[in-house]
Structures are given as C-alpha cells and as structure tokens.
Task: inverse folding
C-alpha cells in the first residue's frame, strides 16, 4: 500500500469531495422529483369519485362506519386530509352535527397522507359515534348523511340512519385502499 502525501493527497480529497457532492445532489434531485410528482397530482373532485354505502360495525354503544371513495374518473387524482360529514333529517334539513378529526374508542389513529389514486383505486376513512345517551343529551337519528371529500365544498348525500348522540362524530383521515371494517 502506498501512502498519499502532499499535493497528491490534496487532489484525492478534492476528487472525493466532488464525488460525494455529486451523489448527494443526485439523491436530492430524485427525492425532489418524487415529491414534486406527488404534489403535482390534482386533488380529486366530486365528479371523479363515487362513494360506496358504508359498512358498519359496533358493540356496547360504539359504532364504527367505513366509507370508501373510488376514483371513477379517467385520470389520477389525490385526496389529503379529513372528510366532512353532516347528519340530515328526512326532509334533508341539517341535524346539529359536530365532527371531530382524530381518534376515539372506535376510530383508530391513521396517518394523514397524500392518497394518490389512479382510476379504479380506493381511499377510505372511518367515522365513529356513540348511540348511548349521556345526561340530557339527545340521540337524534338521521335519515341521510352528507359526506364531503377532503378539501372540497361539494358533497355526496347518502340515505343512512345513524344515531350519533349529541351529533358527535369522529372521523379519521382518508387513507389508501379499503380499511378493514
């Protein structure tokens, strides 16, 4: 093995520094391109989506619903964040509804991610509520429910009877695929 000394050592250090900088720059460019591609995906609009009738699971006064959006459009789109919900009576008038974004005893923690869906792919979320009255709180039953995709102002209206006491509903963020019921 030969020892590297003097000017030759300086050249080796410079060459290595340039090589390391090039590798780092290439890695950063790939990461930036991937992030840019995800950020460049347009958000899903209501006309690009369908919403399946939810599946329900519950016991001991705690009810969990799983809602599934499907990209029925002709192009890739993305959903990010939490959906909105509004309970309605049989005349389609609003019943007081308080949507909490997060977790509860029936809504497990889910990551808030950019859900990119190609045509035919799914994104889903949980909604949970209690149907056990506490104190003098009312447990009104809806006839319909409005579901608004994240970052949208238009909504789906589904025929759905839920009895959320106090109008309190907890929702998870939308995640890729179909969550288990």
Result:
């Amino acid at each position: 093995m030969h020892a590297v000394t003097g000017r030759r050592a300086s050249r080796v250090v410079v060459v290595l520094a340039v090589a390391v900088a090039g590798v780092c720059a290439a890695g950063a460019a790939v990461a930036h391109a991937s992030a840019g591609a995800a950020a460049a995906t347009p958000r899903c609009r209501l006309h690009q989506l369908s919403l399946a009738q939810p599946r329900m699971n519950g016991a001991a006064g705690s009810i969990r619903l799983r809602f599934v959006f499907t990209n029925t459009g002709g192009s890739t789109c993305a959903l990010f964040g939490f959906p909105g919900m509004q309970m309605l009576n049989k005349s389609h008038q609003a019943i007081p509804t308080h949507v909490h974004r997060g977790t509860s005893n029936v809504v497990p923690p889910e990551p808030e991610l950019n859900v990119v869906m190609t045509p035919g792919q799914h994104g889903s979320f949980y909604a949970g509520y209690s149907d056990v009255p506490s104190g003098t709180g009312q447990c009104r039953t809806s006839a319909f429910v409005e579901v608004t995709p994240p970052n949208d102002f238009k909504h789906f209206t589904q025929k759905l009877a839920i009895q959320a006491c106090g109008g309190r509903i907890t929702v998870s963020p939308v995640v890729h695929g179909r969550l288990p019921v």
Residues 141 and 162 are 5 Å apart (CA to CA). The chain is about 20% helix and 35% strand.
